[in-house]
Design a protein that fits this description.
The chain has 1148 residues and is mainly beta. It has five domains: 290 residues, Jelly Rolls (Sandwich); 352 residues, Neuraminidase; 119 residues, Immunoglobulin-like (Sandwich), CATH 2.60.40.1220; 147 residues, no CATH class; 141 residues, SH3 type barrels (Roll), CATH 2.30.30.100. Strands 1, 2, 5, 6, 9, 13, 14, 15 and 20 form a nine-stranded antiparallel sheet that branches. A hairpin with a 2-residue loop joins strand 28 and strand 29. Helix 10 crosses helix 12. The radius of gyration is 35 Å and the shape is globular. The chain starts with 9 loop residues before the first helix and ends in a 5-residue tail after the last helix.
Length: 1148
């Protein structure tokens, strides 16, 4: 409810004006220049009235202020002489006139006003603020605060602010202070920014409660442990605190118009409070009506994220899966694993261990038997490893928990644990509920687990004197190894925050998931991570610091999961259990299945081992509506997911009720996406592992959607869990945009979809929503497919590859994800589209690779946006080393150094770019094929601080046409200039189009033509020259699924090929000559899709170069028109059909 809507209360409340007679006026009567009489003055401590500022200045001959002038002092009308001022002119707010009213406008940058008085403490207060906030970018932007000298406002006084934010509207209000500590949003309602409201906060020591009202309407409350709170220093338009080192200071400046602030040193009774509300409502009614038109509120850009209605518990983003809940009731489960006999073992958050069995043969575990009842021995457990078959100490499991790692075993064979053996202990415990985390065994029986960092909020353990106690030799923040006989424990690596899950892949290498930490340390684990654990490395938490941690280098992660605060927890490698199948299609074997707890995610992460380490690519495959903590593969090839109830971060805890789900593949034959990439700035391609059904993809362009933005990902519309961090809310406010789709087709391999789009200018993430590529099978009900689409996302990353034969003819061109060919081959093993490239490398010719390589901050952790460091690093010089089985050529641009080191028939190139070079380094490689080990092209990176070679992640290769400085779609796109069309004529091109020689008009509609055998071409003006020319030269390269040809054999022996149409109950076939034939359905002996387009090859061979240029001009440019700028009224718009009719018979 807005302030204006409160006017109806005014007349009913005028009777309360007589309350003035019931209370004596406080010492220090209100100033004579104050505006209309305040109906309640007893206990009045502060009265700031923007409307009274002109009169106050007149009273002291301070000089008049005009609309928009800076305000150096806001006089107090209470008579207490608590005027507010600021010492620096650049921090002064503006006095702004809106209609007949005045407000004080704070810019949200540094504007504020302060008052220092000799007042003591309040034990109670009633506070009114009339204000219109403009925006909430986050970080607790303050309307009003009080504090004791040198102390934080929320610890010594009180604050009314916009909370951690950011928010899209005024829907957060934090009321916090001494005796009611901790940020808490008390605002239940939301309203647009730029609207005027009466904020009313009451701190009541008798009721031991803090209450909030907005425009008179009750909002939230919170307990108050009665205590005095200071009023010695007061701030309006900001807050006063500093949580870091150094003195307390003004913080959290707000962007808002503030019209009035009134504070009492007591709790007003109901009648008094209503009288003040009525006074303020009537006084500011006119302002409330007009202020939205005058407030500089930033208009939202882009498109809103539309959440999916009624999302299922688990939405699979790839087709062919079904989801079922296991019919067991357990408290929240932290870990799940299958035993060798097919029994599912669960570890509860409360420490209980259960054995789950399927008693009715339906594939779902339905009975839970207690294996171990935790009687307080185990605290905060997370991480299990089952004992191997025939283990000499008994059957059971290892458990990581607070202060120890235990082996819980059954030594009698009755499936009830009877012994707990402490395997490892002796480290200093930390205050958090979790301590030892994650657990796995290697092939020799050695155990690996993690010890969480000593203090995630103060990683360097800096004391009040600024001295750090962080010890690199400590057990804390490490991966530990315990020998198989439990006799030895040693540190494997350092720099670990909280590694929740461990596992060995099929190569015998150790990996772990690692938690994000930049909320507390700007460059400490800026993302949730997958780490390849290597002995002696330091993994960045806490990161290198010139004073606190100078003797380490921060090892880059193998993969970063974003956006921030995914909370990567459970992980299992997709391997057969008891010789059963893997989860999903067979080519998913060996991939890591990783759970994102806080936002409800499951990723499939493929790892390819190069000569110098691992490169990873990750696909989000599921979005969940519960906190996703762990998962494991079953002997049947299903995936069992363990979910907690409650909100992020850790839900309802050890006593809450969780759920277990089974995800099973129900349609193995369904095509699933292998890779998605930008083939050019106006073309996206998605390749699948099986042939697509063209019929299921009819009207493909109209049924798909592409959105993009810095934090856009696949599955966003199913994400309903939001961790309570400001950076997460800030991500949600980042604009997202829709990328227009102007066409879609299927390549001749029937596995690759080609999507034509508007130009992709922004170097951000792109998410694609596709219809189910195979359609739902008859009678197949998939509980997860309430929304039967496939979703994938991609960035503008990769390599442009071209292979020419010995005569210089281009025989293959396309995209690769990585410069290392073995890495690309591993990631694209299921891509039929790329098979000709791999086969062609054995043929004589040339392979050319184009990319841009980001060589910045190789060993420097990223810094969380909005944060800064208090130190600077020395320059880092990175060197990219590219090696091949034979010499090759390399080129770049000025400022990038390239050195060739060929020897003994081997080729090596070293590319270096200094740290002060802006942007990535362009790179082109030209390699002979058919000679030597071309497929062994590898690359690695080293720096001047560490010569050890490391792999480059996929994100460091930008496509050669990408401008990394463009990160949004703000502003107009530059006019597209097509050099190949220079000198072309639209009119002459129309004549070519409609000529018998070209014959285009017989099949295609364009500019009013009505033919429908082939696709409508009116959208070609939105496509690029190269792809349109390619489609004309090679019509079968990619075929619109709405115009797939068919080969029909009739009962009279005739074979017809063309595009079928069902119209008016009749079947029509259009052939390559534009002829349309009616087909009798009963006369069809057989019918099957054609593998090629019916459009004939060699069309452009019939035309001269000038005619080709004119035809392309007609296809790719809008028709000529009169100037759009004119003092005359525009003539009525004409449709393409009307234009075509007017031109009929002409030579145009």
């Amino acid at each position: 409810m807005s302030l204006a809507s409160c006017l109806r209360w005014t007349r009913a409340l005028t009777r309360f004006v007589c309350l003035l007679e019931l209370f004596p006026v406080a010492a220090g009567a209100v100033e004579p220049w104050a505006s209309s009489p305040l109906p309640v003055q007893a206990g009045l401590e502060l009265w700031l009235d923007a409307g009274a500022i002109p009169a106050a200045r007149d009273a002291v001959a301070a000089g008049k202020l005009a609309d928009g002038d800076s305000l150096d002092r806001w006089p107090d009308a209470s008579g207490r002489e608590r005027d507010f001022a600021v010492s620096h002119a650049e921090r002064e707010p503006k006095l702004v006139r809106i209609g007949e009213a005045w407000v004080v406008r704070f810019d949200g940058e540094n504007d504020h006003l302060r008052c220092v008085s000799d007042a003591g403490e309040w034990s109670a207060t009633t506070l009114f603020i009339v204000a219109a906030p403009h925006a909430n970018p986050g970080d607790f932007r303050g309307f009003f605060a009080t504090n004791a000298p040198g102390a934080r406002d929320y610890q010594s006084g009180l604050t009314l602010d916009l909370g951690p934010g950011p928010t899209r509207e005024f829907d957060q209000l934090n009321v916090e202070g001494r005796g009611f500590g901790g940020a808490r949003d008390l605002l239940n309602d939301g309203s647009p920014f730029g609207t005027l409201h009466i904020l009313e906060a009451t701190v009541d020591p008798v009721a031991q409660e803090v209450r909030l009202r907005i425009d008179g309407k009750p909002q939230g409350t919170r307990p108050f442990a009665a205590a005095g709170f200071s009023r010695q220093e007061l701030t309006v338009g900001a807050r006063y605190y500093n949580n870091g080192p150094g003195d307390q200071r003004v913080a959290g400046p707000i962007a808002a118009d503030i019209a009035e602030v009134i504070a009492f040193d007591r709790v007003l009774d109901d009648a008094e409070a209503e009288a003040v509300r009525a006074y303020l409502t009537e006084k500011h009614a006119a302002l409330a009506k007009v202020i939205p038109e005058h407030v500089p509120v930033e208009k939202p850009t882009g498109v809103p994220l539309v959440k999916a209605e009624h999302p299922p518990p688990i939405q699979m983003l790839v087709p062919g899966f079904a989801v079922e809940e296991l019919p067991v009731e357990l408290t929240n489960v932290n870990n799940v694993r299958y035993r060798e006999d097919g029994v599912l073992v669960t570890l509860g958050y409360n420490g209980d261990v259960h054995l789950l069995r399927d008693t009715d043969g339906d594939g779902r575990e339905d009975r839970a038997d207690l294996f171990w009842k935790n009687e307080g021995s185990i605290r905060g457990p997370i991480g299990i490893a089952l004992t191997p078959p025939g283990y000499e100490r008994g059957r059971g499991l290892f458990v990581s928990s607070k202060g120890k790692v235990s082996l819980i075993v059954d030594t009698t064979g009755d499936d009830r644990a009877d012994e707990e053996i402490v395997v490892a202990s002796g480290w200093n415990e930390i205050p958090q509920n979790v301590d030892a985390v994650g657990l796995t065994l290697d092939a020799e029986g050695n155990l690996y687990f993690g010890l969480g960092t000593a203090n995630f909020a103060n990683a360097y353990l800096v004391n009040e004197q600024g001295e750090a106690a962080y010890d690199l030799a400590s057990d804390r923040g490490t991966v530990q190894k315990v020998s198989a006989d439990f006799s030895r424990r040693e540190t494997v690596c350092t720099g670990i925050r909280f590694p929740i899950a461990f596992g060995f892949n099929d190569q015998g290498d150790l990996f772990c998931t690692e938690q994000e930490g930049a909320t507390w340390l700007a460059n400490g684990n800026p993302f949730d991570e997958l780490l390849h654990v290597q002995a002696g490395r330091h993994y960045g938490f806490p990161p290198r610091h010139p004073r606190h941690n100078p003797d380490v280098l921060d090892e880059p992660s193998t993969f970063d999961f974003g956006p921030q605060h995914q909370s990567t927890c459970g992980m299992v490698f997709n391997a057969p259990v008891n010789d059963g199948p893997v989860f999903g299609p067979s080519w998913w074997a060996g991939d890591a299945l990783i759970c994102g707890e806080s936002r409800g995610k499951i990723w499939r992460t493929k790892l390819v081992k190069s000569r110098v380490g691992y490169v990873a690519e990750s696909q989000l495959i599921a979005c969940l509506q519960m906190l996703t903590v762990d998962a494991c593969v079953s002997p049947r090839g299903d995936l069992v997911a363990a979910c907690h109830s409650g909100p992020p971060d850790w839900g309802t805890g050890p006593t809450g009720t969780g759920k277990l789900f089974r995800i099973r593949m129900t349609r193995p034959e369904v095509p699933r996406p292998v890779a998605v990439w930008a083939e050019s700035s106006q073309e996206v391609r998605i390749t699948f592992d099986r042939s697509l059904d063209p019929v299921a993809l009819r009207d493909l362009a109209g049924r798909m959607r592409i959105e993009y933005g810095r934090y856009v990902r696949a599955g966003d519309r199913f994400e309903n869990l939001a961790p309570p961090y400001a950076v997460v809310q800030r991500q949600s406010l980042e604009p997202r945009f829709e990328l227009p789709v102007v066409g879609a087709s299927i390549m001749s391999d029937l596995r690759t979809v080609v999507i034509n789009t508007a130009p992709m200018r922004a170097d951000v993430r792109y998410a694609v929503i596709l219809p189910d590529p195979a359609g739902a099978a008859a009678g197949d009900v998939e509980s997860d497919r309430t929304h039967p689409q496939t979703e994938v996302d991609f960035a503008l990353r990769g390599i442009v590859a071209e292979r020419h034969d010995v005569d210089g003819k281009l025989v293959w061109s396309g995209w690769l994800p990585h410069l290392d060919l073995e890495v690309s081959r591993g990631l694209l093993a299921e891509s039929e589209y790329h098979r000709p490239l791999w086969d062609g490398l054995e043929q004589p010719g040339t392979l050319t690779l184009h990319t841009q390589v980001d060589l910045h901050d190789i060993l420097r952790p990223a810094i969380q946006p909005g944060s800064t460091l208090d130190y600077e690093w020395p320059d880092e010089l990175a060197t990219l080393v590219v090696s091949a089985g034979q010499p090759f050529e390399a080129s770049s641009v000025e400022g990038v150094t390239i050195e060739r080191l060929d020897r003994e028939g081997q080729g090596e190139v070293r590319l270096s770019a200094s740290s002060d070079r802006a942007g990535p380094a362009p790179l082109t490689l030209r390699l002979p094929t058919g000679e030597g080990e071309i497929a062994a092209l590898t690359c690695a990176v080293a720096t001047n601080e560490d010569s050890r070679p490391r792999p480059l992640p996929l994100r460091r290769f930008l496509l050669p046409w990408v401008d990394p400085t463009v990160t949004s779609s703000d502003g107009e796109a530059p006019a597209l200039v097509i050099a190949e069309l220079d000198g072309g004529s639209w009119g002459r091109g129309r004549r070519v189009f409609r000529s018998e020689q070209a014959g285009c008009f017989k099949c295609h509609a364009l500019q009013g033509d009505s033919a429908a055998i082939g696709p409508d071409l009116n959208n070609l003006v939105h496509r690029d020259y190269a792809s349109v020319r390619r489609d004309v030269l090679n019509p079968s390269f990619a075929i619109n699924p709405d115009y797939i040809g068919h080969v029909i054999v009739l009962d009279d022996g005739r074979t017809l090929t063309g595009v079928l149409r069902n119209q008016d109950g009749k079947l029509w076939l259009g052939d390559e000559k534009g002829k349309v034939t009616e087909i009798d359905r009963d006369a069809i002996d057989s019918m099957q899709p054609a593998k090629t387009s019916i459009m004939p090859q060699g069309l452009l061979d019939k035309l001269s170069p000038d005619e080709v240029r004119d035809l392309m001009t007609y296809l790719l440019t809008p028709p000529p028109h009169m100037p759009l700028d004119s003092p005359l009224d525009a003539p009525p718009l004409r449709t393409p059909a009307e234009v075509a009719a007017a031109l009929a018979g002409s030579q145009l």
